[in-house]
Design goal:
By secondary structure, the chain is of the alpha+beta class. The chain has a single domain, classed as NADH Oxidase (3-Layer(aba) Sandwich), CATH 3.40.109. The protein contains seven helices and six strands; from the N terminus they run βααβααβαβαβαβ. The longest helix has 18 residues, at 108-125. It starts with a strand and ends in a 13-residue tail after the last strand. Bound molecules: flavin mononucleotide (FMN). Residues 21-22, 79, 131-135, 155, 180 line the site of flavin mononucleotide.
């Protein structure tokens, strides 16, 4: 299995793909409102099944203390350790049913993921760092934000300008400094049918 994992970029990719990473360390520097608008503009232009655009976001900057805290308080403890310094939190949600006929939308999470990926790459191109989280308590967060029943909360993103990890607890510093790895393409790309 070892030769199926590597830390290298093994074919040319866009600059933002090459440099993006999910750091846990944030500088004490706010994200301007104009930049926030660009992040959501990138999400806006993501593709979606039937152009349903099932995504919905609630964001809070750390100077919006009350709203920011509502999101922060719904995170799991392991995430709270590092998220406390993030100047911007974004909750990503999806509308579960199509708006035209209320039928379940089987690709809502897929479409939201695409929008989040666009947002993340836009953020990277603007010098920002994004770390996504599934480590939150959905019921708590839904209640705190009064999320309607036809929406599902899928992820929370911590956004800001990256900093050196020296203010993080030692265990997290170690993880920040560890090499990032990925499966090599032969582990997940095929040019033939599955073996019988
Ligand atoms: C849907 C999703 C949920 C994640 N949940 C968490 C989380 O709760 N806590 C955390 O520290 N990182 C979380 N991550 C970050 C991943 O661990 C990280 O993206 C992965 O290790 C790859 O590292 P990279 O983004 O730097 O390439 C999550 C990422 C995604 C996409």
């Amino acid at each position: 299995m070892d030769n199926l994992i590597s830390s290298d970029i093994e074919a040319p990719v866009m600059e933002v793909v090459r440099i993006r990473k999910s750091s846990r360390a944030f500088a004490d520097k706010p994200v301007p409102e104009t930049v926030i608008r660009s992040l959501f503009e990138a999400a806006r232009w993501a593709p979606s099944s039937r152009n349903e655009q099932p995504w919905k976001y609630i964001y809070a900057t750390s100077d919006q203390t009350e709203l920011w805290q509502r999101i922060f308080n719904s995170l799991m403890d392991g995430n709270k350790t590092w998220v406390q310094h993030a100047p911007l939190l974004i909750v990503s949600m999806m509308r579960k049913n199509f708006s035209r006929d209320a039928a379940p939308n089987p690709t809502a999470a897929y479409d939201l993921g695409a929008a989040n990926a666009f947002l993340t790459l836009q953020a990277t191109s603007m010098g920002l760092n994004v770390r996504q989280m599934a480590g939150f308590y959905p019921h708590k967060l839904k209640e705190a934000l009064r999320v309607p029943a036809d929406y599902e909360v899928v992820s929370v993103m911590a956004v800001g300008y990256a900093a050196l990890p020296d203010k993080l607890p030692p265990e997290l510093q170690q993880r920040e400094n560890a090499p990032r790895t990925r499966f090599r393409q032969p582990a997940f790309v095929m040019n033939q049918i599955f073996d019988e």
